[in-house]
Amino acid sequence: MANITVLGSGMVGRAMALDLAKKHRVTAADISEDALQRLAAVNSGIRTTVADLRQESEIKKLVSDADVVVGSVPGFMGFEMMRQVIDAGKNIVDISFYPENPFALDALARQRNVIAIMDMGVAPGISNLLLGYHHKQHKVLSFECLVGGLPAERRYPFEYKAPFSAIDVIEEYLRPARFVVNGKQVVKPALSDPELIDFPGIGTLEAFNSDGLRSLVETIPVADMIERTLRYPGHIALMRAFREAGFFSKEDLLVSGVKLEPIDCTSKLLFEQWRLGDHEEEFTVMRLRIVVGHDGGTKTLEYFLLDRFDKATATSSMARTTGYTCTAGVELILEGKYNRPGISPPEFIGEDEACVQFVMNYLRERGVKYQFTESDSNPG
Amino acid sequence: MANITVLGSGMVGRAMALDLAKKHRVTAADISEDALQRLAAVNSGIRTTVADLRQESEIKKLVSDADVVVGSVPGFMGFEMMRQVIDAGKNIVDISFYPENPFALDALARQRNVIAIMDMGVAPGISNLLLGYHHKQHKVLSFECLVGGLPAERRYPFEYKAPFSAIDVIEEYLRPARFVVNGKQVVKPALSDPELIDFPGIGTLEAFNSDGLRSLVETIPVADMIERTLRYPGHIALMRAFREAGFFSKEDLLVSGVKLEPIDCTSKLLFEQWRLGDHEEEFTVMRLRIVVGHDGGTKTLEYFLLDRFDKATATSSMARTTGYTCTAGVELILEGKYNRPGISPPEFIGEDEACVQFVMNYLRERGVKYQFTESDSNPG
C-alpha cells in the first residue's frame, strides 16, 4: 500500500482516485469543494483537500508524503504543476496535456532522480505506448491514429459534448496540426482534410487533422505519422464556419461599447451547449494502424477500441480509458516495473514488452479492451 | 417638375434620388455626409442635406416644400419618420419596412388628406401589387411568393451578402413567419421548412419560411398565402445552428466579466462577413405563383424576376428592383393616377389596372423585367 496524491479531481481525476483507492492511501486535491465532497461520498477512505493548485506552496505540501503523484489539472496549469512536483523529488504520472514542451523538465527530473511519465492517456497515451512497442519490434513504415470521444445521443446542432472545457476543444480547432509525411514534418490547419470513415458498432464518423502526435514527432523516426480526431459528420463543417467567420478570433472586437475577444463569447455559449451531464452516455473510439515491414513485404497491425460509459458506476468512458491508463502507469512505478528517471512519454515505456503487457492487462481487467488484428497490407 | 425629398440616402435611397432627379428637383437627406457627397458627385443637381432624421424638427423642415416624400430610412426609424411626414400633410411613398403596423397611421393620413404608400418595394411591394391586381380580376385560390437578394460570388461560409444591416437580416431569422393555410393564419419559426428549388439562370436555391406577407394577411382574403425567402443551399442550416446554439440570443451573457447580448457580438462579426461591396455583383430573384379559378378549373399565373447588378451605373439589383418600384409610386401620385388618401399598401394600388400597367412599364423602361406565364394547373 502506497501513498498517492491525485492533483485535480475533475471527471478523470475522480475516476483515478477511486481506482487507486482500492489498493492505496489516496489524497485527492481540487479547488472545488463540491467535486471533493462527491468523491468522498463514494469512498470515504479517500482524503480530500481543497487547494488552489496554482499556488506553489500548496503543491509542495500536498505531495510531501506521496510515493507517486497523479497530475490531472487543466492544461494551462499542467507544466508548472509538473515542474513543482519534480522539483519536490516526487514521481509523477500526468494527463494534464499542457501545451509546453515536457522535455524542458527532463534535466531537472534526472537531477532529482524522478520518474515523470507524461501524456499517459488514450491518445496521446496508449497510441504512443503501442507505437513505441512496435517500433522496438519491427521496422515501422507508417502510423495512423484516429481517436474521438463522443456522446451517444446526437443532439442538434453540434452532436458533441466536451469531456473537458469548451475553450480547450476550440483550441484544438485552432492549433495547426503537425504530422509527418515521407520523413518530413508537415503542418496543416486544424479541421483540415475531413474524411468520412465507417466504424463497426458506431456508424460513420468524420476525421480531421489535429495536433495530437506531440512527443512522437521528436521521439520516433517513422516516415509517415498522423493523428486525426473523430466527430459525427457535420460538426467539422460547422466549426470551420465558426472559425472562418471570426467566432474563434482572439482579436479585440468592439461590441456595444465594450472590447472583447469573440472567442470568449463563443466559448461561453458553447460551454453551455457542450456540457457533458454526469450520467450522459458517451463513448471513446480509437483506431490505430501501424504498417510494419514483414518478410520482405508489409503487414498492417490494427488496434481498435470502442469503450462505452459504464452505467453501473456512472463512470464516463473518457475517464475510464484515459484515467486507467494513467493509474496503470502509477502501478508500473510502484511495482518497480518502470524506473527510467527523467521525462518519459509513453513510447519510452512501450519499448519494454513486459510494461506494455502489464498496462494492457490492467486496462482489460477494468473493461477497457483493445482488439488487435493483423493483415498483410497487400493480400493476394 | 415637382419637389421630392428623399429621406435616407443608403444604397436604395441613392438610386431613387438619381432616378427621380432626371425629372424633378430632389433633396436628399442622410446622417452620413460621406453618402451625400458621393451622391452629389454623380448628380450635382441634387440638393443634399446632412440631417439626423430621428429629430422631429429636421423632418418637418426637410419636407416643407416637398410634393412627395420618399422614405428609405432604417426599419427601426421608419414608423416615426412616416408619422411625422403625414402629420406635416405631405404625401409619402415608403420602403423603410418598419415592424410597426402602418395602419395605425391611417386615420391621421386621411385627416391630413395625405396619400401614404407603404412597403413599395419588391416583396413586399410588387408581390402585393400583383396579388391585389389578380384578386380584383379573379377568384384567387392561392398565392406563393419566393424572393431573395444574393451575391453573384458565393463565398464560404455564408454565401450571402446583406444589402442592409446584418442585425436586420438576423431579425428575419428570428421573427416567426406568419402565413395563411386553408383560411387560417399559421405561425411557424423563421428558417423552417427548408426546400431546394431550381431557378433558370441561377441553379438551385433553398427557400425557408419568412414573415413577409405583412399587410396581405389582413387585406386580402385568400385561403392560402405564403412568402418564403431564398438563399444559396446551406446558409439556412448554418443560421439555424447559430440560432439554436444561442448566438442570436438577446439574453444577457457574462463574458470576461462584462454583460452582453450574444446577438450584438454575432451581428458585429457577421456585419464584416456580409458587407456588400459597392461594386459587388448581386441579383434579385422573385417567383410569384398565383392560382386562380378559371372556367370551372384553375390556372396558375407566374411572374418571374431575375434582375442583376447594373455594371454601367454600378447600381445594385436590390436598389433597382426596390427603388424603382418606389419611384414609380412617386410618379403615380404626381401624375394623379393614384389618389386614395390614407395608408395604402401596394395591393390597394393593384386594384387599378392602369396603375399596375404604369408601374410595370416604369420598371421595364429601367430594365427590371417580370416574365409572365400562365398555365392550366392540372393540364391534360
Q: State the shape of chain A.
A: globular
pLDDT averaged over residues of chain A:
95
Strand content of chain A: 25-35%
Structural class of the secondary elements of chain A?
A: alpha/beta
SS summary, helix count of chain A: 13
Order of strands across the main sheet of chain A? 3-2-1-4-5-6-17
Chains forming the largest contact? A-B, 27 and 27 residues
Describe the protein in words:
2 copies of one chain form a homodimer. With 380 residues, chain A is of the alpha/beta class. Chain A is 34% helix and 29% strand. Chain A is built from 13 helices and 18 strands. Chain A has helices at residues 11-20, 33-42, 56-63, 75-87, 106-111, 126-137, 166-174, 216-219, 235-244, 262-274, 317-334, 346-350, 353-365, and strands at 3-7, 25-30, 47-50, 68-71, 91-94, 115-117, 140-151, 177-181, 184-188, 195-199, 203-209, 224-231, 253-255, 258-260, 282-294, 297-308, 342-344, 370-376. In chain A, strand 10 (195-199) and strand 11 (203-209) form a beta hairpin. In chain A, helix 1 packs across helix 11. The mean pLDDT of chain A is 95. Chains A and B meet through helix 9, strand 13 and helix 10 of A and helix 9, strand 13 and helix 10 of B.
